[in-house]
Amino acid sequence: MPKLTFLGHACFLLEEEGKETLVFDPFLRENPQATRKPEDLKVSYILVSHAHFDHMGDAYEIAKANQATIISISEISSDAQEKGLSAHPLNIGGKFNFPFGWVKLTLAFHGSGIAGGHACGFVVNYHGKNIYFAGDTGLFSDMKLIGELTPLDIALLPIGDNYTMGIDDAVHAASFLGAKLVVPYHYNTWPLVEADPQEFRKKVEDKTGSRCLVIAPGESHSF
Ligand code: NI
Ligand code: MN
Fold it and tell me: For residue 183, what pLDDT is reported?
């Protein structure tokens, strides 16, 4: 059974016993919510949604220590390769098969943090389960297409407002996506992104067909 662990802010681990471990947006050392240090992670793949510090975080350090492959937008992947790291470049709408399944890059309406790049989200097929990680983004109605094209087991959505969707827009996102389970992130890291995840949970379960699970930093959910 795959296991999803929230490491605080926008960082998630996706793993299954005896299989590849993936980490999303590994921001740990400077992350007030983090319950793990970058040197404690044993991962094969690092997915980076954009180059802002709270997402790129410790990606290069972890890639180097684990000889892991960074999966990101072309500009970030090229930068990583220039620094001697392993990286796979993708661009919006593109999909590639990896040993664990596949990764498809989606739109994200947000700054890229790197010249010429785009911020992105990811749809990940991990050993048969489909997970959407929205990255940092505002609400957009094409999220409907993401859910139509790939039936989602889990949708990971930012709810902290200010830099991304807030709670009410993220509830719309959840209704567009139609995932079995919705998990919030990007909240309560700092005062600017304060949000009540239980308010989000209640609204998702009242207004959409999805279940919502609030995962505390350091906690896991098997699915
Ligand atoms: Ni950002
Ligand atoms: Mn962010």
Answer: 99
According to the model, what pLDDT value does residue 127 have? Answer: 98
The CATH class of the 3-217 domain is alpha beta
What backbone phi and psi angles, to 5 degrees, belong to 202?
-65, -45
User: What is the residue extent of each domain of the chain?
Assistant: 3-217
Q: How far apart are CA 38 and CA 13, in angstroms?
A: 12
The parts of the chain modelled with pLDDT lower than 50 are none
Pick the closest to residue 135 from 116, 150, 117, 148 (CA basis): 117
**Ligand 1 centre and the CA of 1: distance in Å?**
31
3-class state of residue 135 by DSSP: coil
Q: For 214, list phi and psi in degrees, rounded to 5.
A: -90, 120
> pLDDT value at position 18?
97
Rounded CA-CA distance 102/85 in Å is 21
Rounded CA gap, 51 and 54, in Å?
8
Listed residues: CB within 5 A of ion ligand 2: 54, 136
CB-proximal residues (5 Å) to ion ligand 1: 52, 136
Size of the chain, expressed as the number of residues it contains: 223
